[in-house]
Structures are given as C-alpha cells and as structure tokens.
Amino acid sequence: MISQRTPGIVAERLNAEELAANFADLHAPLEPHEAAVAADRCYFCHDAPCVTACPTEIDIPLFIRQISTGTPEAAAKTIFDQNILGGMCARVCPTEDLCEQACVREMAEGKPVEIGRLQRYATDTLMQRDIHPYTRAAATGKRIAVVGAGPAGLSCAHRLALLGNDVVIYDGHAKPGGLNEYGIAAYKSTDDFAAREVAWLLDIGGITVETGKVLGGDLTLDSLSAQYDAVFLAVGLGGVNALNLEGDDKSGVTDAVSFIETLRQSRDLTKLPVGRNVVVIGGGMTAVDAAVQSKLLGAENVTIAYRRDRAAMSASRYEQDLAASHGVKLMFNVQPVAIHGNGAAAEIELEYTASVDGRLAGTGEKTRVLADQVFRAIGQTLTMDESLETESGKIAVSGAGRTSLDQVWAGGDCAHGGDDLTVTAVAEGRDAAMDIHATLNGSV
Ligand SMILES: Cc1cc2nc3c(=O)[nH]c(=O)nc-3n(C[C@H](O)[C@H](O)[C@H](O)COP(=O)(O)OP(=O)(O)OC[C@H]3O[C@@H](n4cnc5c(N)ncnc54)[C@H](O)[C@@H]3O)c2cc1C
Ligand code: SF4
C-alpha cells in the first residue's frame, strides 16, 4: 500500500478525502454577520493609507462602508470600478504586504481590518447573483488586439470594451486566465473560480477570445499591427531559469511552474505523483506554492532551499509561516551544487553561503538532503522575441505601458517596472487601456 513513506515519485500518497480537505479554500469566506463585524472595525480614514498601498487604488473605506450599510453589491461595484479582477485579487493578493500592512489598525494593534476577506465577500455576493454591472459605451469603431489572456490582458480588454472598442484576445494556452488558471495555488482559487471569473468578465461583450494562438508562431507583431488599431502585449514570463548544475537533467528534477500547472489542471489529485522527499530551490511565492502543495499532496519531507537569508526571501513572512505551518522546512543560506542519483534524483548537495563584501559566495561547507523530487523555482523570463526595446530582460515601457513601437503597448509581468503580482498586472492593463483609448479616440 502506498503511503507518505513510499520511496520515489508516486501518486495516491493520500486518499481522496484527505486531498479534498487539504486543497479546500485557504480562508473560509465570511458569512454576512462576520462581514458586518469585520467592516465595523474600519475607521473610514480620510486619505486612507490602505488605498495608496493598493496598486489598483480601490476606494477601500467606501466599499467597507457600503458593506456596513448592508449593500455589498454597491461595494462590489466600487471594487470593480478600479479592479475588474477584484474577486481573484481578494483571494491571491499578498494583502499582508499591501493594503492590510498599511491599515492604521495594523500599526496600532497589529491586527488590520480584514480588507481582503471583505473584498471577497462583496465581489462574491455580486458575482453569485450573475450580475455584470457594466454596459458598453457607444461603439468607437476601433479594434484592438490583446496578446495574453492573463490578468493584464483581461483587465485591459474589459476596460477597452467598456469604452466602446472591439477587442480580440489571443492566447497560446487552451484556456484563458493566464496564471490565474495555471499558476495560482489550488487552495487560493477553488471551485474553478478563475474560469468563472473570465466568463463573468466577458459578459461585458465586444471581446472575442482566440485560444491556441501564439505570438511568434501563428501571429506576428507586424501582422497584428496591420490588422488592428493597437496591440496590447500581456504575455507574462513564459520561460523558466535553469539551475545549471551537475545532475540537473536527472529524472525528478522539474520546474515548479510546470508542476503547479499540472496540479491546477488535474481533475483527480489522487492521480498526481509527488516525491517522498521534495526539495524546492528558490525563495519566492512560486517556491512556497510548490512546497506547500507537495506537502498537501502527501510528500513526507519538503524543504525549501534558499541561497540568501530569511529577510531577503521575496515570499512574504506570511507565506513563509504558511509553509512552516504545513511542515515545510526552510533552509537559508544554501545553494545547490549537484543533484546525485542513479538516473533519477536521490539527493541534493547544498553548499552554505555567506555575504562577502555584499556579494553572495559559497563557504565551501556542504551538506546533503534526500531528494527524489527537485523543483526549480528561481525565477521566470520573457520568451517573446519581437523587435521591441527591452530593459532588464523585460519589455521597456514608459507612461501607461507605451513601448518603443507607436502602436504597441505592454503591461503585466512581461513589462518592466512594478511587482510581478496579479493586482499589479490588473492595474497596468487598465491604465494601458485608458491610454490606448485616449490615443485612438483623439483625446491625446
Ligand atoms: C506559481 C505562481 C504563483 C503565483 N502566485 C501569486 C499569488 O498568490 N498572488 C499574486 O498576486 N501573484 C502571484 N503570482 C504572480 C501572478 O500570477 C502574475 O504576476 C500575474 O499572473 C501576471 O499577469 P500577466 O497577465 O502579466 O501574465 P500571465 O498571468 O502570465 O498571463 C500571460 C498569458 O499570456 C499567454 N502567452 C504567453 N506567451 C504568449 C505568446 N507568445 N502568444 C500568445 N499568448 C502567450 C500565456 O498563455 C498566458 O495566458 C504567481 C506566479 C506564479 C508563477
Ligand atoms: S487604513 Fe484600515 S481603518 Fe483606515 S480606511 Fe483603510 S481599512 Fe479602514
């Protein structure tokens, strides 16, 4: 019988009931009474710091007041006016680093108003009623191509359609949603929420989605520029950095993003194999997501190995604690030097590191950790190969996503500047749409 102690990479370490419990909603949704109590903690600050801390600048005190007065649908509209993916952002935003960190009650009491959960309460209430709260402006006759159906592309397309433009979204994947559909940890977006949100968003009308269409394959920037009045690039970061070390090619060594994608698309988690001893290399959100989900699938030992110290880890303290609370071991100041095993990974060799004159260096002291599965989570890269200026490996932009080509805008993870977060992608897509609309319709 297979158990958590079975060697190698195998499926069915846990049974269906255990897996269902493990992958349930990370935070239970608020009941109406709980939402009222949570909303009552807000001081409705003037010049509220939580608003400034939100990349989409949602009027947080207003929407919380609307919840307090028993009008969650109005609260949802306040949220969607700034962030049409407010439902997903309520689930995935690192609120502990954004709005909730800035909340005056966090500063005073170490316990912020639960802005994220209140946002989810409001947006879920409206979406469950199947209401799309916008109607399109009169047709402008302008047509815009959006490449990439992730948060940046969807946000841009919705705003352009709202303003009366026609939009075609092209995406290389089989389903729209980008990393909302393929990347976000399963316990943050349950019940097919990503797909439901896309369907809801498209109710605005005027947007056609063409999946399985790849820029650089069937599509070129020149052909899109010739066919459309403008192009918005929202292709994210499709490439994954390599480890470049001895044994990197052994079976069992894979990209964390591919593992998470397979997990997100899996209809039966009992069939998904996972190692007994899993090691994740990296220090960001992707590393934490791969580690926690491996543990939830039934891996016996899961370790995150990060080359710098805890403070330098890009995963927030909340995420680090989430990993630790699921039994993931966090190792700091170690870098991988080799993966050992006879064809398949069995052990990973790590070297301790130290900062020498501000630079990271190996100390020569080494250790080995059992590892039948190793995930690379050391960052993603731009894969698009088009004639656009780049900066630090991303598409160079100025203003609201203007690229080096007149007719072409870009936003989200593929564009330079801003954090690689869902909410930032939504803000950049929205702002680019406003700029594209103003440019095409003569007000710029
Ligand atoms: C594993 C993982 C977990 C994450 N967890 C969180 C989280 O919890 N909270 C958070 O805020 N952020 C999280 N992020 C970051 C967040 O998902 C991204 O910042 C966000 O999705 C970026 O949106 P985007 O629209 O720019 O790109 P993406 O979501 O990457 O969408 C890009 C789209 O473009 C398509 N595409 C790519 N190349 C082409 C091409 N050549 N032709 C056509 N289509 C193409 C892709 O198929 C994809 O649909 C996570 C990221 C990863 C990798
Ligand atoms: S900072 Fe906190 S208390 Fe003030 S408006 Fe924002 S959520 Fe309310």
TrEMBL record:
<feature type="domain" description="Dihydroprymidine dehydrogenase">
    <location>
        <begin position="21"/>
        <end position="130"/>
    </location>
</feature>
<dbReference type="Pfam" id="PF14691">
    <property type="entry name" value="Fer4_20"/>
</dbReference>
<dbReference type="InterPro" id="IPR036188">
    <property type="entry name" value="FAD/NAD-bd_sf"/>
</dbReference>
<protein>
    <submittedName>
        <fullName>Glutamate synthase (NADPH) small chain</fullName>
    </submittedName>
</protein>
<dbReference type="Pfam" id="PF07992">
    <property type="entry name" value="Pyr_redox_2"/>
</dbReference>
<dbReference type="GO" id="GO:0016491">
    <property type="term" value="F:oxidoreductase activity"/>
</dbReference>
<dbReference type="InterPro" id="IPR009051">
    <property type="entry name" value="Helical_ferredxn"/>
</dbReference>
<dbReference type="InterPro" id="IPR028261">
    <property type="entry name" value="DPD_II"/>
</dbReference>
<dbReference type="InterPro" id="IPR023753">
    <property type="entry name" value="FAD/NAD-binding_dom"/>
</dbReference>
<feature type="domain" description="FAD/NAD(P)-binding">
    <location>
        <begin position="143"/>
        <end position="429"/>
    </location>
</feature>
<dbReference type="GO" id="GO:0051536">
    <property type="term" value="F:iron-sulfur cluster binding"/>
</dbReference>
